[in-house]
């Protein structure tokens, strides 16, 4: 996670399930981690669900090495049987994503970290 494309630092992604609805609940969030040495403007970035529904991110600055928790909003739809959440850069390219199973979706309040990350890394 936190790879770089064309020398532009990119954040990583972890998804926290807080309810079992098909749409974001009041506490359902995504945590972004900027693993680069540079601050990153999230203006133009977006989240995408498995149905290709897009949620633009607010234009905030994510400082180098810091995290930001973003509350999910409609039109994103997260399924109870598992699903995907993708982070897109301003060019619309996938830079990170998280897949979760139905079993993980049932675990309310649990953070789902991408399988490619070692334990303890978000």
Question: What does this molecule look like?
Answer:
The chain is mainly beta and 122 residues long. Helix content is 4%, strand content 40%. It is globular and about 35 Å long. The protein has a single domain (4-107), classed as Immunoglobulin-like (Sandwich). A hairpin with a 4-residue loop joins β6 (46-49) and β7 (54-56).
Strand and helix map with partners:
Elements: E1 4-5, E2 8-9, E3 11-16, E4 29-34, E5 40-41, E6 46-49, E7 54-56, E8 61-62, E9 67-71, E10 82-88, E11 94-101, H1 102-106, E12 111-112
Antiparallel strand pairs: 1-2, 3-4, 3-12, 4-9, 5-8, 6-7, 6-10, 10-11
N- to C-terminal separation? Answer: 8 Å
Domain count: 1
Give the low-confidence spans.
Answer: 1-9, 17-22, 117-122
Mean pLDDT: 74
Give the SSE order as H and E letters.
Answer: EEEEEEEEEEEHE
Shape by Cα distribution: globular
What value does the Rg take, in angstroms?
A: 13 Å
List how many beta strands DSSP finds: 12
Structure annotation, total helices: 1
Under the CATH scheme, which architecture would be assigned? Sandwich
* CATH superfamily (homologous) name: Lamin Tail domain
Class based on secondary structure composition and strand pairing: mainly beta
- CATH-derived topology: Immunoglobulin-like
Summarize the amount of helix as a percent range.
under 10%
Tell me, what is the CATH class? Answer: Mainly Beta
What amount of the residues lies in strands?
Answer: 35-45%
């Amino acid at each position: 996670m936190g790879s770089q494309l064309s020398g532009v630092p990119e954040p990583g992604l972890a998804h926290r399930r807080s309810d079992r609805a098909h749409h974001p609940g009041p506490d359902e969030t995504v945590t972004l981690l900027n693993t680069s040495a540079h601050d990153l403007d999230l203006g133009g970035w977006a989240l995408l669900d498995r149905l290709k529904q897009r949620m633009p991110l607010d234009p905030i600055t994510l400082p180098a090495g810091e995290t930001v928790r973003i509350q999910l909003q409609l039109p994103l739809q997260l399924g109870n049987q598992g699903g995907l959440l993708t982070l897109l850069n301003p060019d619309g390219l996938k830079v990170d994503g998280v897949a979760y199973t139905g079993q993980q979706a049932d675990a309310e309040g649990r953070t789902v970290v991408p399988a490619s990350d070692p334990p303890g890394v978000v």
